[in-house]
Fold this protein.
Amino acid sequence: MTINKPTILIVDDEPVNIKILNEILKQEHQIKVANNGRQAINLAHLQPLPDMILLDLLMPDMDGFTVCEQLKKSSCTRDIPIIFITASDAEEDENKGFEVGAVDFITRPFSPSIVQARVKNHLLLLHQKRELQRMHQEVLALSLTDSLTGLSNRRRLNEFINQEWIRALRNQIPIGILFIDLDHFKNYNDYYGHTAGDHCLQAISRVLQNRIREQDLSARYGGEEFICILLDTDIDGVIRVGSDILRQIREMNIPHANSAIDNRITLSMGGTAIIPNSNIYPDSIIETADKLLYIAKKEGRDRLVAQAYAPV
Amino acid sequence: MMQNSAENSSPLSLPGSLPGFNLDKGLKLLNSNTQLFTRLLKEFYYKYRIADEQLQQYLFSGDIKAARLLVHTLKGLAANLAAGDLYRAANALEKVLEKKLQPETDNKHHHDAEFADVQTALLYSMHGLSTWLDSHKTKNMHHYYLIKAKPPSDAHNTIESLIQSLFQQLQFANPQSIDFLAELQQAIVKKYPSYVLNSYLLELELELDRFQFGAANLILTNIQQEIIRLQRSQRSMAAV
């Protein structure tokens, strides 16, 4: 069975009507059929979902209006364009059809070329709508992503931590955080150039992204600063993840001839974890992790300093 | 490859004229597909040849809703098949019945005249169809999907794969499912001549023609089970 043709679901209790529409449309479309409203609703939810539904108005048990209303209520099927095809030429039926969400209304007898043209036009509109939605998603993703590293940006970080904080507060589960900074990165840029610096940031970002789980978040906080938010993770978990990241960066052995610590790229990290309570805000945990990072720097860099949250 | 067998086996051809029908207009509505138009006219005849009696019963018993549904269906079919007089008569009767269904009407309007027009138009069209069909002495409308194909040598494996193929079509609610039946019918009839299987195959053809995929699925399962039973029986007899 060809999978590239649009799928049309034809709904009619009279097989002769189905055969006529099938004949008109089968060349350029995959056709599915249903004999009644209940079947139509079920088939509309089965993969491959139809790209369009041609719906008879008057059927025993469940009429076309009711089928259309049901389909418009479901998130899976609400965007499928529905065209009523009926022998009814009553204006009130046509009005009601549009009110319940149909995009078009074709009365019998119809001309095959008109049916084909209307189906084609509505499929084109659907395609354009989907394309717009996809572009919107892309733009939205870009607005929440750091363009150099592909990690979340600060805007997304704030959004994420605020919403997860509420969830963790409600469920009384811990949130962990790692605040990460590349040691002597300005020296790296000065020595190797900014292009090499960008590549280095991208390499570090890949390590962070690969180490965390799907439900966690890695973000670029500043020039060479990163934050990892680890959901449902206590301080032991934070230490485990942080140590792992440190080990992987060490193993990568990225040369840094201008570092005061070693001849390779190193990271300093501050890590903490908390079960949220209503007296503390998300900013506090970031501030704490930042201060622990400062301690890591003071103690010689290339290390993780972590402790369970305590007001600093 | 599956073929619609009507072009190979059906001797029925469209007449030059058919009372009650505008054949040129009907063909135009179906992209000049003569074969399909012929099949639909036949189907219309066999399904609705006593529709006037049915309609009369509904009206007599006061079941206006059922009457309206039937008239609406006839109207739609008449439109699709270019039966102008029937379309106009059904349209007029439908309007009267719609008014009767509205709660605020006083129901004083009688539908006798409009019903009489529908009855006349129906009888006229059906008479024309009956004459045409009788002249071709078509015995059974449901056998035009059989094709004369040589069954493959490994008949059973083919039968099983054809059955699975048809199951897939039913799952997809594909209106072309009936096109997958012909080869299966031929293979089964050759390998397992059996009254029970022939009955199932006929039932299956009917249900596929009406797009009743649920019922078709059940019948196909029965066919599968009957074949298994026959195979066991053949093996036992061979052992003896």
